[in-house]
Every structure is written in C-alpha cells, then in structure tokens.
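Reopening this one. Same input as before:
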Amino acid sequence: MTRKYEPDEELERHIASRLLDVLIRAGLVLALVMLCYRVFSPFLTLMVWAVILAVTLYPLQQKMARKMGGKQGWAATLLVLLSLLLLFGPTVLLLSSLGDSVQETVTAVQTLSVKIPVPNPSIAAWPIIGKKIYAAWVLAYNDLPAFVKSMQPKVVDLTKVLLGVVAGIGGGLLQLLASFIIAGIIMAFGQAGAKSSLAIFRRIVGAERGDEFAKLSTSTIRAVAQGVIGIAFIQAIIVGLCLIIASVPWPGVLTVIVLVLGIAQVPALIVTLPAIIYIWSSHGDYSNVEAIGYTVLLLVAGMADNVLKPLMLGRGVEAPMPVVLLGALGGMATAGILGMFIGAVLLVLGYSIFMGWVAANPHSEAASAEDHAET
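Same output, byte for byte:
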C-alpha cells in the first residue's frame, strides 16, 4: 500500500514546490513594481502630460522634420519653442491681468474706495438667500466701513484663496513648460517609441489587434487634445484678448472661467453675454461704434467653439464622437483634466472591444448567411 501512494506524494511535492516558486517570483515582481512606482510616482503626472503632448504634436513634428532634411532633434526643438511662444505669451498676459485684478480689489476694499450701487429691493424677494444678500448690500451701501469690518475675516480668507489659485495656475504652467521640454525629447526619438508602443500593445492584446488598439489610442488622445482642451484653450485666449481690448473688468478671472467652462463643454456665452451687457450699461464709457464693435467681437469669440468642434473633435477616431466626448467628460469628473485623456482612451477601447465582440457573434453570421441564401 505504501508503494502505491509514493508516486502521488512525489507529484504533490513537485506541484507544491513549483507553486511555491511561482508565488515567490510573483511576490518579488509585485514588490519590484511597487518600488518602481514609488520611485517614479513624483514624475508620473509630468511624464503622462509629456506623452500626451508628444502624441498630439508628433505628426506636425514629422512634417517639419521632412522639410528640415530628416533632422528629428532640430524639428522637435523648433516645434517646442514655437509652441511655448504661442502658448505662454497670451497666458502670461492673462495671468498678469488676473493678478492685477485681485490686487486692485484687495486694495479697494482695504482703502474703502469701492463704489457700492444702490441696492434693488426686489433682491429681498429671491428665495432662500434673497433677504441675506439684500441686508448685506444695504449695510455696505449705508456704512461701508462697518460692512468691511464685519467681513474682514472672510475677505482675508477669500484673498488667500484667490492668490492661491493664481499661484496654482503659475505652478501648473511651470509643469506644462517642463512637459513640453520632455515631449520634445520624446518626439526626437519618436520612431523608436512608436515601435515600443506597438510591441507593448501586441504583447497585451495579440498581434492581430495590437496595431489597431495602438492606432485607436493615439487618435483618441489627439482628438481629445485638439477637440476639447485645444478648443477650450483657443477660445479662452480669444475671449480674454477681446475682454482686454474692450477694457472689461477682471479679464483674467473671466478668461479662467471661460477655460473651465470650455473644458466642461459649457458655452462661453455665459461669460461673454454679461460682458456685453456691462459694455452697453456703462454710461458714457463707450461710444456706440465702440460698443457695437466690442459686441461683435465678444459674440464671435463666445461662439467660436461651434465652428471648431466639428472640425477638431473626433477626427481620425474610429468611434462615434459622443463616445469620445462622454469618456473625456467622465474622466474629467473622476480625475481632473488628465483624466479626460485616460477616460476617453479607456471608453473608446472598451467600445471597440464590445463592438468587435458583437460583430463576432456566430449566430448573427449564420442568420445573415441564411438571409443571403434566401435572397
């Protein structure tokens, strides 16, 4: 009886040994992955933005390289410099305007030089908050020093928040500057990077669909960058410059609002229409010709996305535009601006996998063959 069970025990010991080896190796690989992530995590956001910029700008860089005799490095450097010049010039101007607006408001509140208009009694009839707003407005109109004194802690906190927002935007611009520089390096070695990406996709999903998924991911990133971020940024710059030209107060703040609204797919007319009302309600500050000219500029700037979206959003993506847009908005709601790209890519890939699964239905193929035979 003992001899009968010896082969089984030997097999069990062999399986247990192999299983232990697999578990140890898996544990070591997991530990290595966690350590690599911990080392790389401070640069993760920066590198993801650099890859997104490189993927978005790579076709243009290739055109420039062909015109420059195939010099990939020089073409990438020139493209990065041109992008920074076009991007950071207007942005620095608007940020400066935003900082000046915050400083002017703080100074006006501190020196009690703010002009408070006469409160409208109809505000008190507003539901929930109407009475509180009207009471505060009446106090500010009748006794501004007492109102400022009562609001001093909140004003200080609000000022800190606003200055923190400005500083955060400045820090974000510095990170974007570094991302552009790294993106230039990636584009200079873009051909090797493209081969590596294809190899990774082929390893994950197989050789048949690896090329398709790599192309789909690349085109989705470009579509989101051009059709969501690009349109929102272009429109914000245009609206901001028009606000500065028209001498509308707080152009920097309004520009940031337009940018956020554009990314969230909310019309910029929410900002430009009140600016137009301000222009026409400013007695004597604008002539009729100036008011009409500024009105036309702001209306065109506020509706520029209606022309740009059909041209830029969803171009080159083998998926419906609503899928790209829903993925971008869902990703933004989950993980901010960076999540727009991740969400769009994941949803488009998921849509492609699902539709491929639907198309591969054997019952559907058999039914279509029968219908074809009958006809």
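So the earlier flakiness isn't reproducible anymore. For the record, The mean pLDDT is 77.
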